[in-house]
Amino acid sequence: MEKQIAIIGGGIVGATAAYYLSTLPGGQQVKVTLFDDGLGQATTAAAGIISPWLSKRRNQQWYQLAKAGADLYPQLIHDAQLGTDVYQQTGTIVTREIPTDLELLFDLAQERRQTAVTMGSVTTLTAAEVQAKIPLLANAQPGVFISGGARVDGAALVAGLLAQATAKNLTIRRERVHLTAQGQVVTSLGARQFDRVIVAAGAWAKELLAPLGITADVRPQKGQLIELAVKDYPIQENMPVLMPEGERDFVPFGHGKLIVGATHEDDGKFNLQVDPTVTADLFASAQRLMPSLTTANITGTRVGTRAYTSDFAPFFGPVPDHEAILVASGLGSSGLTTGPQVGRLLAGSALYGGTPDWSEYEKPLATYLKPSAE
Ligand SMILES: Cc1cc2nc3c(=O)[nH]c(=O)nc-3n(C[C@H](O)[C@H](O)[C@H](O)COP(=O)(O)OP(=O)(O)OC[C@H]3O[C@@H](n4cnc5c(N)ncnc54)[C@H](O)[C@@H]3O)c2cc1C
Predict the structure, then answer these.
(1) φ, ψ (nearest 5 deg) of residue 256
(2) Which of 161, 333, 337, 344 gets mutated to test ligand 1 (max ligand atoms within 8 A of its CB)?
(3) Class of the CATH-defined domain 86-151+220-307
(4) Single GO cellular component annotation (predicted)?
(5) What does the pLDDT average to over 342-370?
(6) pLDDT, tens digit, for every residue of 13-28?
(7) CATH number attached to the domain at 3-44+155-218+311-369
(8) Which residues of 261-287 are buried (b: 16+ CB within 10 A; e: fewer)?
(9) Residues forming CATH 3.30.9.10 domain(s) in the chain
(10) Alpha carbon separation from 11 to 34, 46, 204, 316 (Å, rounded)
(11) Residue 34, exposed/middle/buried by CB under 10 A (0-12, 13-18, 19+)?
């Protein structure tokens, strides 16, 4: 009989898990149903920067996971036959005003490059060179250019992966579901037993796992960014992502689209309201880099809910004492980077079973999943 696998959540983790469940050896023998209500999805709201290598985070497991995610992207995009409108290695520029800070950053980049092939080449750029690469800027600072840095359109990526999987073994159901204490999935048609359930519900993992008697260490964080329509330079499709010191990130996409953000609002909970003062603050940051901008350039705002754990590290894998249920959450502000690797690993585990050793990438799940108090 065909194995039945459910995925709850259609963000980057759920979509890549679905994609790999449709392409990995043995995937032809499974039927996959993905449930998603699309509410507050972090993936579609995200800025799309894939450039983890200069992070100051000391967590080595997180760094290995983020590096593996960045490494996976070119292959995933190639295999899924997605284009440069979805993902492109335009390069990323991280700026520093003070020359000694710039040197330190360059040294760090050179060191990290030794073990990160996807980083490509590393160069120091003068302010004029930064401006030549991103002519939108009026006020540039010197920076370090990483040629392998990339930008991804999270919504387009998810749509592309899910379309590929739907052509094979995936059915998508746009609805909110929950779990029973026995791990059945309760849909609008009633409770249903699956051989495996992947809970890829981002910030909502806590409420989904609660009926199992598990308290997940996950809290929501609100993130907002703005979309702007700017002059469409012929080179814009290839313009690097800018991570300017002291300002919001500046992410040019093709066809004159510019993304500026994002905020990290810890008291935002699951609130998806656009806050006009935040929009004004994001716009002011954009305008300091590009004074010609007016509010008429703003074409939209995006709000999403990130998932955080107490130590800011993601967790994923089979739930202890509930091996038929796998979970991933806590991907925080770098989930577009780590998500494809997490989704790929979960798909393999759901297909082949066993007790995976992912200690290279994360702490034991018991760190984040505790029995609920009676
Ligand atoms: C403004 C912003 C900017 C960001 N920028 C970047 C960036 O530049 N680079 C980067 O690497 N990362 C970035 N991130 C982080 C990244 O977007 C997230 O970490 C990542 O998308 C999380 O993916 P996920 O699949 O775990 O969760 P999500 O994308 O949130 O998906 C979870 C899905 O599960 C669904 N769901 C939940 N509960 C249920 C239920 N009971 N039934 C049905 N469906 C359910 C939700 O509706 C949602 O669609 C950003 C995030 C935000 C908010």
Answers:
(1) 70, 20
(2) 333
(3) alpha beta
(4) cytoplasm
(5) 96
(6) 999 999 999 999 998 8
(7) 3.50.50.60
(8) bbbebeebeeeeeebeebbeebbebbb
(9) 86-151+220-307
(10) 11, 11, 12, 15
(11) buried
DSSP 142-175: -EEEETT-EEE-HHHHHHHHHHHHHTTTEEEE-S
Where in the chain are all domains bearing CATH 3.50.50.60?
A: 3-44+155-218+311-369
Which amino acid residue places its CA nearest to atom 18 of ligand 1? 335
Check pLDDT > 60 for residue 224: yes
Q: Is there an atom of ligand 1 within 6 Å of 304 CB?
A: yes
Count the helices and strands in the chain (H runs, E runs).
9, 22
Average confidence score pLDDT of the chain:
95
37 vs 270: CA distance, rounded Å: 14
306 Cβ closer than 6 Å to some ligand 1 atom? yes
